[in-house]
Amino acid sequence: MSTTTPAVRVRLARPSGSLTGGRFPAVPRRPREHARPASRVDESFAALGTRCRVVIESPVGAPESALQALARIRRLIDEVDQRLSRFRPESDLSQLNRDPRETVPARPLVLDALATALTAADRSDGLLDPTILPALIEHGYARTRRDATPVGLLAALRDAPPRRPARPHPGGAWRQVRISRVNGTITRPPGLRLDVGATAKGWLADRCGALLHAHARWAVDLGGDLRVGGPQARSRPFVVEATAPLRATPAARLVLSSGAVATSGIDRRLWRRPDGAPAHHLIDPATGAPAWTGLLTVTAVAASGEEAELIAGATLLRGPGAIGRLSLSGGLAIDDHGHVHRRPNVRPGAWRWSA
């Protein structure tokens, strides 16, 4: 699984030492009867090549404590990291990509992650293509670049090629991948290598959220892809900050009581190829080269992490002409000049911009 910390750093804010209240008058005060949950955890940790944070509040009589729920979430995240990281030679994904057989048995978790990636490819008309791994490797992303010397964003933008929207590959090799949940197999042309980095964190955030339905208030932040929920979040919503790459102050603050936020961006993992050209991890499937579309980041709000990640990734690859697609559920895009384009929700929803 290839994951990165997004260019817009979406995070749960900690105003006045808490997740809500204080600076944001739009956030209701905590009801007195909910002042002390039976158990609460708030833990940050490294995983998936990024920083994660989990907040869980459990009511009296919950079938498991917040600490027990956290342990289950950590086990799930660790399993996904072990099974789906393309940077681990022993991972299920790496073994699948080395397997010379056309049809390969796979665990249910791997089948589910790949099914999500294929759905995103179909719904984005091939822009979110899980078969672009060879292009990533060709352009310098053969191994994690977490500790690599970064390239400055302004220098990269100056040296980047002319901006244009990404396009799907006319061959669409992802259409040749077949998943059988009945047989527990993946069928694809031998030698076709797959990567789920474009969709894995949103999918995983949803799986984490499904484990927390019995808890009063919770949030899962996987390096900027967030899923929040719980009945008490309606009266004590989370404040989510999005910090833009070309400015020090937050580009937006969202007040979120349910649903998901995901960001796709190009500035957190920039490097130079041997020829000196700047490169990043978002590939134009039609050219096999990094996509320079005129957008630095896109943050989308949706009912699920899977949906938010699809909207954010596809909008960034389509470029400025697609910003209007954010209007349905809400979000923001930041262009190469640092201009912030906000698109508020056009329907009543479970979130709003903070004052």
UniProtKB/TrEMBL annotation:
Listed InterPro entries: ApbE (IPR024932), ApbE-like_sf (IPR003374)
EC number of the protein: 2.7.1.180
Residue numbers spanned by region Disordered: 15-40
Catalysis performed (reactions): L-threonyl-[protein] + FAD = FMN-L-threonyl-[protein] + AMP + H(+)
Cofactor(s) demanded: Mg(2+)
Source species of the chain: Patulibacter medicamentivorans
Name by which UniProt lists this protein: FAD:protein FMN transferase
Top-level class of the enzyme under EC nomenclature: transferase
Keyword annotations of the record: FAD, Flavoprotein, Lipoprotein, Magnesium, Metal-binding, Transferase
Single annotated GO MF: metal ion binding
PANTHER family: FAD:PROTEIN FMN TRANSFERASE (PTHR30040:SF2), THIAMINE BIOSYNTHESIS LIPOPROTEIN APBE (PTHR30040)
